[in-house]
């Protein structure tokens, strides 16, 4: 998969800190914005986010171009309703090839990989035959698998992102959306380090695991892993869940 | 597919009419509720809905049990974000059989039907083999097709339903979600006939087609079809789109 | 203030439990609904709500008629965006009297009460004079105070209610919206006792206070107070915050 | 009032056009973003917005610093739920002065203006006296009027803005929120001229007035006024409603 942050609110932390000030002072936000002191602002923001008063960070918005996730993953993704999506249509696009995602556990074993690849080949053939027989793409695609790759543009604000990371960076989430969430987190940490300072799965954000008997049992490892997150860490994070 | 209205706000039109009164009079809604006159109430409601002041009909909520739609359809459905969904999980359910939806245009032709059914059989076999080789359901399901049947519980309020019908009863929507929308509309018309009096695709609600050059060109037929809608009309409505 | 639950999803806990089943079994929700066993269902629901998997309880919706809260309170209330409201308009209603809410701390003292009541009298006079001089109600109301009484119809689903109670039953919330939240909680506990079993302020729902140095310091008293909540407890709850 | 656009998605129209492409082509959004051709992009965007397919313009977000609107106006404003707000608190801010908004119709007449100003003076005095007698600001503010000035930070995406303008630029909206909407529209037209090309009240966006017998009757004048909108036009627009 490929995840690229293509746009975001400029100076996101300034915008959010100025909003935080607005609620507790007589001075207005336009004036505040002009005379902003980033050191003080970051302190206020860290404080506000720390206490879970997350409405102010809704003012910062982030847009991601995502390529090559499976439709299984996109179906989970779009269940997050406080966000905006534009997804590649299987109704209007007539596909030449069937690009697909292979789960690592299937990839790892020669036998399962063979079954999987053969099946994908059969599906691609069936799709093509149906198209050739005059079936429109919107119907031919009924044979397409959950594994089929899709592209999607995602916009979420910082508050929803924190919530998304809570659920989807968790080791209990499926590996693919977990990788997506981790890649998104790495991107936003670069441009809004204070807001996303303690971002990650629930256990990282709360300081304890709320999953009760469903816990993954790796609290310490997970908390360590999110202490400093960089692009090279994606594989390490992926392996945590095995 | 099977669509059943399993719950809804009792006396939905009374609740909405009382709300409409609340905004324009000194008398409070608790009193209004006790002394409600349904004839006057319906008049107010018809008026309010007619002028597009739809916020009052948000107070009426409808819950549907939906069985046997395809995952292609459910993926479109859950893009409507002002609603609540609980869907059957392919991660946690280990399927014994692969139930699937066959598009009518594929069904209609012996050649295409054979390709389709064979492909489904191959997929079901591949899924089973992967499971037998120790692949967890959440990964084995990557071979499952868009055609795979799913179950889902949907809750929408009347305002969102009107919007949903606008888009999804339209002949430009895919046939499967169109059937779903029509079945839902038939159900709610029974219990909230005033609110849904003029419900249907955009052209029915607006009195003209807003799709410009993408119009289906069947304005008159569509408007006629929605004049009185009953269970037996599902097939007729489905055929309109052919 | 007067708070009356005028409508709600019938059998709310059955609807939510059936939804919970839907996500983890092959059997569909329409069948489940017909053969529901309330004992087993409640167990599933208690489990699901307990682990914070709250999406299933969105299917249960509750509508309240609220009379006689202040505009200060309604302005706070409508900031909760995942809800539906219909409020008495000050633009379209020409008021004969100015009904108003007096804060308890002002009521408690003869001096402050006198200042307050006189001010209200001056405001009512000014409003009337402006109306008499031909100023339309939508402009004359600019003299009306935050204390002015208003009526409002509120619809929230159970998930949003739990969140609302977390914030607004908290002793750090303003006394008026706290009373409103407590009255709403008492109403819904009667009809959905399992869903709202552990409802209340954050500390009651989480088992600890998340407010850090802003804590009210009354954790034990608050947790005790919410153990069994009945109509007669409103005053006791109000006093907790003094 | 003062309305300043303090932040927005950079290159908003590029982001939205790239999203539009994503849904109808095999090529992914990250690649599209790199090789963007603004002329073709604008054509696509104009087309998409024109047909009312507004989901793609949700990816562009706009943040406004607003100073000096009345609490009457802010109470209307925050009823738009698909948006983010941070408002100056009357609970936590202890006000030294009472700044207030005077409606033009009250300002226009010496008699009404005197009544209004005297009333504001009485209110400010009462507030100060209550504070001096130990009443906390959150209770003393119950005497504050709807006219009291407030500051607020607003973030809306382009889709919600189009909807907001439909309702609030309409001559049937109250003059104050109409001025706010017009000022916001002027700001966003500068940075996203294609998206907001036909923005304005319903009649401007639809080409007809949907208000039926409640129409203002000034269709032609209104449509003309929104043809080219600049800062100097605020007064002209305000007068249209008289």
Explain what you see.
Four copies of one chain form a homotetramer. By secondary structure, chain A is of the alpha+beta class. Chain A folds into two domains: 2-85 and 150-240, Gyrase A, domain 2 (2-Layer Sandwich); 91-147, no CATH class. In chain A, 48% of the residues lie in helices and 12% in strands. Chain A has twelve helices and four strands; from the N terminus they run E-H-H-H-E-H-E-H-H-H-E-H-H-H-H-H. Chain A has a four-stranded antiparallel beta sheet with strand order 1-2-4-3. Chain A is globular and about 70 Å long. The two termini of chain A are 19 Å apart. The model of chain A has no long low-confidence stretch (mean pLDDT 95). At the A-D interface, strand 1, helix 1, helix 2, strand 2 and strand 3 of A face strand 1, helix 1, helix 2, strand 2 and strand 3 of D.
Shape of chain A: globular
CATH class of the largest domain in chain A: Alpha Beta
Separation, N- and C-terminal Cα atoms of chain A: 19 Å
What is the string of SSEs of chain A from the N terminus onward? EHHHEHEHHHEHHHHH
- Major β-sheet profile of chain A: 4 strands, antiparallel
User: Which class of secondary structure composition applies to the elements of chain A?
Assistant: alpha+beta
């Amino acid at each position: 998969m490929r995840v690229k942050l293509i746009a975001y609110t400029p100076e996101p932390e300034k915008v959010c800190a100025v909003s935080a000030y607005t609620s507790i002072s007589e001075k207005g936000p336009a004036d505040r914005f002009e005379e902003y002191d980033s050191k003080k602002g970051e302190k206020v923001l860290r404080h506000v986010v720390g206490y879970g008063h997350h409405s102010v960070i809704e003012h910062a918005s982030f847009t991601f171009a995502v390529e090559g996730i499976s439709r299984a993953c996109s179906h989970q993704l779009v269940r997050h309703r406080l966000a905006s999506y534009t997804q590649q249509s299987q109704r209007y696009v007539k596909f030449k090839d069937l690009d697909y995602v292979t789960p690592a556990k299937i990839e790892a074993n020669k036998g399962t990989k063979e079954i999987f690849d053969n099946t994908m080949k059969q599906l691609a053939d069936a799709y093509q035959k149906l198209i050739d027989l005059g079936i429109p793409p919107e119907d031919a695609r009924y044979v397409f698998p959950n594994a089929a790759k899709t592209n999607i543009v995602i916009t979420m604000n910082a508050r929803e992102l924190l919530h998304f990371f809570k659920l989807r960076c968790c080791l209990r989430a499926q590996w693919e959306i977990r990788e997506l969430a981790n890649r998104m987190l790495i991107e936003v940490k670069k441009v809004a380090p204070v807001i996303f300072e303690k971002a990650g799965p629930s256990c990282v954000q709360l300081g304890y695991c709320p999953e009760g008997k469903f816990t993954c049992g790796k609290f310490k490892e997970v908390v360590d892993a999110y202490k400093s997150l960089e692009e090279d860490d994606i594989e390490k994070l992926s392996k945590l869940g095995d």
